[in-house]
Write a structure and sequence with these properties.
Strand content: 25-35%
Largest sheet: 5 strands, antiparallel
Helix content: 10-25%
Radius of gyration: 15 Å
Shape: globular
Low-confidence stretches: none
Number of helices: 2
Length: 142
């Protein structure tokens, strides 16, 4: 943790991640409180990378407080000059990927996956209309 600010400037944080912004990269330090543990987090990351390769996560390393916590550090390419997508844009994008709405706003499914929390705070659009799902919850359907 002593070197965490070497990653970049502190950015927006949520329940599970503190973010650090560098020129071309966003680093997410995950506290594992909402993920169900390191294995479930890494499974989620693998699923995210399969479904949304243009915002793939890379494992950067671990941080934490000596003898008390371990927190994985993930990185994603920074999507510059973008803004939150509208829900209509998101719904259209997910349909193009083969997903159908699944009840509540921001919830989708296909024959293999259930994806939720796909809402404007987690999806960006650039000036060309390209969509970037930067954070979503994903589970396989068994």
């Amino acid at each position: 943790m002593d070197n965490i600010f070497d990653l970049g400037t502190p950015g927006p944080s949520g329940n599970e991640n503190d973010t650090y912004v560098a020129k071309d990269t966003i680093y997410k330090v995950n506290n594992l409180l909402n993920s169900g543990g390191i294995c479930k987090l890494l499974d989620k990351i693998l699923l995210h990378n399969q479904l949304f390769p243009n915002t793939a996560y890379r494992f950067h390393g671990f941080t934490g407080y000596d003898g008390r916590t371990v927190m994985p550090v993930l990185e994603q390419e920074r999507i510059c000059e973008s803004q939150p997508a509208t829900q209509i844009m998101i719904d259209t994008y997910m349909a193009a990927l083969g997903f159908e709405r699944d009840g509540e706003v921001g919830r989708f499914k296909n024959d293999k996956y259930r994806v939720w929390d796909v809402v404007p705070r987690n999806v960006l659009v650039d000036k060309d209309g390209d969509m970037y799902v930067i954070d979503a919850e994903i589970a396989m359907i068994f």
